[in-house]
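Hi team,

As requested, here is the filled-out complex form for the uridine-5'-diphosphate-xylopyranose run. I kept the field names the same as last time so the parser does not choke. Let me know if anything looks off before we queue the next batch.

— J.
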Amino acid sequence: MAESQTIGVFGAGWVGLVTGGCFAELGHEVIVRDVVPDRIAALQAGRMPFHEPDLPDVLARNRERIRYTLDAGDLADADALFVCVQTPPTYSGDADLSFVWSALDDLPRVDRRQVLVMKSTVPVGTGEKVRAALEARGLTNVGYVSNPEFLAEGHAVRDFLAPDRIVIGAFADEDGAGVEALYSRIAAPVVRTDVASAEMIKLAANAFLMTRISFINEIANVCEAVGADVVEVAQGVGLDHRLGPHFLRAGIGYGGSCFPKDSLALKQLASNSGYHFQLLAAVIEVNELQKRRVIQKLQKHLGRLRGKKVALLGLAFKAGTDDMREAPSLVLASRLLAEGAEVRAWDPVARPGELMKGAVLSDSVLEAVTGADAAVIVTEWDELRGLASAEVRDAMTRPLIIDGRNLLDPEETRRAGFAYEGIGRQSSAFESLPETPEPSERVSG
Ligand code: UDX
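And here is what came back:
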C-alpha cells in the first residue's frame, strides 16, 4: 500500500474536483483551494457545481479526506500542488497563464520540497516559463512536473482511476518519481519523459483523435455521394487492429471544452515557430463545414428555410453532459435563425440560456417536434432512440428526421413513415415515403 501524501489542488473546477476526489479515493489527504467564495461554500455544503457522473459519490465517500478552502496558506502542508486552473487562449492563440501566475503568487512560503504539477492543458514551453517564474520568485524549493489529464466528460472518474497511461514530464528525476508514487495504486503504464514532451503528448493525442473524427466525417460525405453507408464502413475499417474502432463515429463534428481549443492552440504553436500544420488546419476546417452540412440537408428537403420550423434535439456537445461549450447545436441554431427558420430546442439537461437567443426551449421532445417541418438529432441522447414513433410522426407537419449522430436505424425509421437522412448514409426523398395515414389533427406551433 502506497504511503498517503497530502495533495493540494488549485482550482475547484471540473478537472480540479475530479483530480482531488480521485486522489482522495486513492487514500491521499486532499486540500482543494479556489478563489470563488460561493463555490467553496457550495462544496463545503456538499453541493456539486456541475454534472459529472460518479463524482458526487467519490467526493461524498471521501469527505473525511477532502478539505475545501479559500486560503492558499492551507496548502503549506501539501507535498504536491496540482494546478487545475483555466488556461484560456488569448487573441494570439497563446495560453493566458494569469491564473497560473496568481497561483504562484499565492504559494505559501515553506522550507520543504514541494512539487507544482500542471494538469491543465497548456502549450508546449509553458513548463519552462513556469520554472523561470518560480526562480524569479525565489521559490527554489518548488519543483515542476507536467502531468496532463486525459479525462473525457461523462466518465472522468473512470478515466482518472483506470487510465490508458499516466504521463509524467519532469525537470528533476526526484520530482517525477514523487508524482509517480502518488499514482502507485493505479495499474497503468507510466510514461516518464521531459516536460516539453509531456506537454506535447496531450496536444498530439487530442489532435489525433480529432483527425480521426474529421477523417471519418469526410469518408461519410463521400459515402453519401457514392452510395455507401459510413456506419458499415467504420465497422469494417475499425476491425483492423492497426486502426482500431474508436473515434470513428461520423456525425456533425466535434465540440466541447477541449478539442476546439486545443486544436487551435497546437496550430498556433506550430505557426509561431514558422511551421504550417496543414493536416491540422484541414481537420479544423472539415469540422466547421461538417456542422453546416445539416443546413444543406434541410434545404435539400425543405427548400428555403424561411418560416420553416426546425426542432433541434439535444444541445449539449455530446450525451451525458450539460456542457454547451463549442456545441455544434450553437452553430446550427444561429445558422437556422439567420436563414429565417423558427428554432425549437430540447435537451434533457443542458440549459443554453443567452447562448441560444432566438430559439424557443421546449420541455419535451414531443413539444419540440409538434408542428415542425424537420427534427434534427444533434446530440446522441438515449431518449431520442425512440424518436421514430407514430406519436412524433403525427405531431410533425412534415415527418423529416435529419439524424446528425446516426442514432436511428434508417430502414425502421422509413418504415415508421419518416423521410430520413443520416450522415454518410443513403437519404430518402419525401416522394419515396411509404404510404402512411394522414395525421388526423395538426397542431400549429
Ligand atoms: C476529450 C478527450 O477525449 C479527452 O481525452 C480530453 O482530455 C478532453 O477532450 P471530451 O471533450 O469530454 O474529451 O469528449 P469526447 O468524448 O472525447 O468527445 C469529443 C467530441 O468529439 C464530442 O463532440 C463528440 O461528439 C465527438 N466525437 C467523438 C465524434 O464526433 N465522433 C467520435 O467518434 C467520437
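Two things worth flagging: Residues 6-191 form a domain with the Rossmann fold fold (CATH 3.40.50.720). The chain has two domains: 6-191, 194-445.

Thanks,
J.
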